[in-house]
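Input/output pair, single chain:
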Amino acid sequence: MSLSQFAAQAVDREVRAGLKNVRVTAAARLHLGFLDLNGGLGRRFGSIGLAVDGFATEVSIRESRSFGAFGEQRRRAAALALRFAASLGLDTAMELTVARAIPAHAGLGSGTQLALSVASAIRSFAGLPIDVRADARLLDRAERSGAGAALFEQGGFVVDAGRGPNTELPPVVARLDFPTDWRIVVILDRRIEGVHGEAERDAFASLPPLAAGLAADICRLTLMQILPGVAEQDIDSFGAGVERVQEIVGDHFAPAQGGRFASPAVRRVAERLKACGARGVGQSSWGPTGFAFAADDNEAEFLIREARADCEGGVEIKACKARNRGAEIGAAAQPIL
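Output:
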């Protein structure tokens, strides 16, 4: 069941009473770039995001006499659950299990997807209506980007408009289904972590504003090349726009991460993919995850086969699809132990 379907059925008697065994599954997201790191018009950031399968977070909650957390990233999940329940004044007699988790600090949106999965599971367990925007604000998951919350709720391809002086959650100004035939080749170096936490805040504080002309170029590329490329299923136009945005943003962040790519190993694979004809090559957020786009399964298989020779041990390369629906929320068929 998609999030929209679940919300539409919120008046159902079982939902109002609370589900006794809840499961939430949320897909990873790619962050393809910021729109405006200049801020001269009164807004900053603005994000381009895409929901992808291949990596997912799966959270379940069932009845228990006391609180317990199990599975992957259980300490992180437990802290989120206890904070969220306390904020809403909810009972914490529950067993929380993270059966799967998106790799942490890899540029795949793990923190936001885990936080919103935990919050939505607790709401469903307690018989409360889903409220993704409120949960994102409560759990501090939209400090710069609204893409993660929007993709949890809707999936697909989104653009948010960043933060203005009175923004609570960056508003989504465009949302499209992503072409189902296209494939996203994802490159993940599991040996390193991208910049995050306090180091991320320090990096943003230390970087100078992006030149206004470059921010204008990114906005034009997004409106006149990237979005129309998705709408018209023109992968060449889309890929050219994404790649140029990645060049501008990558050069801006290079002093904080040692180059356009956080991982030299991912950079080598990305360069190989580009040489073999991949479109839209770049890095998601602070990395180390890289990406490229292919027109279909056959092209993706060719690209991966050609690039494997440049993959070091610890570097994973796989073909993913876009996910054009939001998180799945509902009753689990059986407890996850």
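The mean pLDDT is 92. Residues 268 and 310 are 7 Å apart (CA to CA).
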